[in-house]
Design brief:
75 residues, 59% helix, mainly alpha, two-stranded antiparallel ribbon
Length: 75
């Protein structure tokens, strides 16, 4: 499993991780080992780009970025 996919799953499952990401996205992503391309893809909110970087189909991603940069579980 890619680091990006692990991080997305972490954001999906862990409220403290989401809060850390919401407070300082770059620091949180760097702490979890995401490279610049993965960080940019995640912050773009582009599911196709994130899926490609994570090595999965876009339908497997369940996180969405709100307009303020916070990540919420999609419905």
């Amino acid at each position: 499993m890619s680091k990006l996919l692990k991080y997305i799953n972490l954001l999906d499952q862990d409220a403290a991780a989401r809060e850390a990401h919401n407070q300082s996205p770059q620091a949180s992503m760097e702490q979890h080992g995401l490279n610049a391309e993965e960080q940019q893809g995640l912050m773009s909110g582009d599911h196709a780009a994130m899926a490609k970087l994570a090595g999965v189909d876009a339908t497997e991603l369940h996180m969405t970025q709100s307009s303020n940069g916070e990540y919420l579980k999609s419905t």
